[in-house]
């Protein structure tokens, strides 16, 4: 929604300002310049990101046009789930959650939180490390190192679309210059064969190449890359909350205190207050 609103503002501002200055919109319609810029950019993009990276990028781009699901309500549910799991572990032992982490989709605990179940990355991360806690002999330091490695690897993977689109945005102004230079070449070879008025139109058409390259880059592609980067940061924050909460539990802290560690990992916009979270955890016990 916000992407479409932003694009509309970009279009309205650029084209509206051009018309207000006395320009004619028909002068901006230069299909040849558009084909050169966009075609060259797409060709280079496919060359650089062919195969699995390209599939990941095509899958990620639609996500930029959707609202982020990582909000305060989701974090409240995450803390409620962690609190319930850790409370069960403290009362009944680690083996009591073995069935839950082995099959979370059919777990009576996990099934209370359908929004989280839909986030496969976070649930898989949580269950993997709960499974290690249940069946492994790893100490907190070893588990923390393993968590850091996995988070870093996942961050690199999900950042591929962001980096690819950012590089494409950086290259588009250069392709605009290529289109403009080709337009100037065409103009120069027409000298002596066309009227001065026609030469003026050819020069204007050539300049549209530079205009389109810059506009598409900074008005459309770069904002999508930035939006995807924000979404990657949101997803990493969920994993960080899970990490610090589980590590606090491994270090012997009670479930309410362990969840407080996770709460502190959030930015102020998404972080619930201490009393607010405490009240939510009390309500979640009655589910």
Task: Supply database-style keywords.
287 residues; mainly alpha
Structural overview:
This protein is mainly alpha-helical and 287 residues long. It contains twelve helices and no strands. Helix 4 (72-92) packs across helix 12 (274-285), helix 9 (160-189) packs antiparallel against helix 10 (196-250) and helix 10 (196-250) packs antiparallel against helix 11 (255-263). The longest helix has 55 residues, at 196-250. The chain is elongated and about 90 Å long.
Structural class: mainly alpha
SSE series: HHHHHHHHHHHH
Q: Distance between the terminal alpha carbons, to the nearest Å?
A: 34 Å
Q: Approximately how much helix is present in the residues?
A: over 70%
Could you tell me the radius of gyration in angstroms?
A: 27 Å
Beta-strand residue percentage = under 5%
Total strands: the figure is: 0
Based on Cα principal axes, name the global outline: elongated
Task: Please outline the major beta sheet.
Answer: none
Uncertain residue ranges: none
Average pLDDT, rounded to a whole number, is 89
The quaternary state of the protein chains shown equals: single chain
Helical segment tally?
12
């Amino acid at each position: 929604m916000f992407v479409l609103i932003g694009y509309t503002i970009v279009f309205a501002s650029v084209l509206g300002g051009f018309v207000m200055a006395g320009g004619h919109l028909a002068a901006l319609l230069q299909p040849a310049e558009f084909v050169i810029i966009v075609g060259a950019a797409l060709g280079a993009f496919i060359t650089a990101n062919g195969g699995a990276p390209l599939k990941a990028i095509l899958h990620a781009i639609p996500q930029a046009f959707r609202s982020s699901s990582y909000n305060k309500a989701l974090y409240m549910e995450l803390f409620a789930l962690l609190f319930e799991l850790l409370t069960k572990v403290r009362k009944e032992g680690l083996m009591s959650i073995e069935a839950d982490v082995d099959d979370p989709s059919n777990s009576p605990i996990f099934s209370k939180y359908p929004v989280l179940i839909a986030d496969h990355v976070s649930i898989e991360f949580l269950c993997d490390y709960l499974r290690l806690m249940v069946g492994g002999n790893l100490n907190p330091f070893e588990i923390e190192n393993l968590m850091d490695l996995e988070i870093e690897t996942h961050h690199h993977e999900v950042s591929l679309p962001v980096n690819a689109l950012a590089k494409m945005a950086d290259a588009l102004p250069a392709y605009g210059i290529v289109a403009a230079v080709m337009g100037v070449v065409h103009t120069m070879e027409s000298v002596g064969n066309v009227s001065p008025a026609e030469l003026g139109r050819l020069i204007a058409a050539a300049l549209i190449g530079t205009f389109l390259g810059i506009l598409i880059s900074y008005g459309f592609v770069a904002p999508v890359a930035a939006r995807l980067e924000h979404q990657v940061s949101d997803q990493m924050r969920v994993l960080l909350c899970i990490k610090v909460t589980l590590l606090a539990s491994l270090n012997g802290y009670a479930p309410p205190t362990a969840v407080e560690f996770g709460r502190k990992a959030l930015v102020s916009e998404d972080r619930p207050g201490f009393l607010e979270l405490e009240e939510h955890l009390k309500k979640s016990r009655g589910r």
